[in-house]
Specification:
By secondary structure, the protein is mainly α. The chain has a domain of 78 residues. Helix 1 crosses helix 4. The longest helix has 23 residues. The relative contact order is 0.17.
Length: 112
């Protein structure tokens, strides 16, 4: 890390996990990510444009709630929008596959 700015995704990933250190924060993220997938499926199934419009609110709403009221930190999205989006998808996929615990331990965090 140069100064206080992260310069590579390899550095960013453990930082991202530590910013989601509380299990409740991760649960809010997983809830929002699941809503995004449901809303995307509804849109693709022809249920209207409203579902597509709702996707950013479904994804960011629960996540930002968790950062402000559970984790008490600022979402990484504000400084690293693309890496944060990629990392949210990565964290969700690791959670679904049962592999998130290993990544949390490597970042110095306890599992859920």
């Amino acid at each position: 890390m140069e100064g206080d700015r992260i310069r590579s995704y390899v550095e960013f990933w453990p930082f991202y996990l530590r910013e989601h250190g509380k299990p409740a924060t991760r649960r809010w993220h997983f809830f929002g990510s699941t809503l995004v997938l449901v809303f995307l499926a509804l849109f693709l199934a022809g249920q209207g444009w409203g579902w597509l419009i709702a996707i950013p609110f479904a994804g960011y709403g629960p996540a930002w709630f968790a950062h402000f009221f559970v984790e008490h930190n600022k979402p990484a999205t504000f400084r690293y929008p693309l890496w944060s989006l990629v990392s949210d998808a990565r964290m969700y996929a690791l959670w679904l596959s049962g592999s998130l615990g290993r990544e949390l331990r490597k970042a110095g965090l306890a599992e859920d």
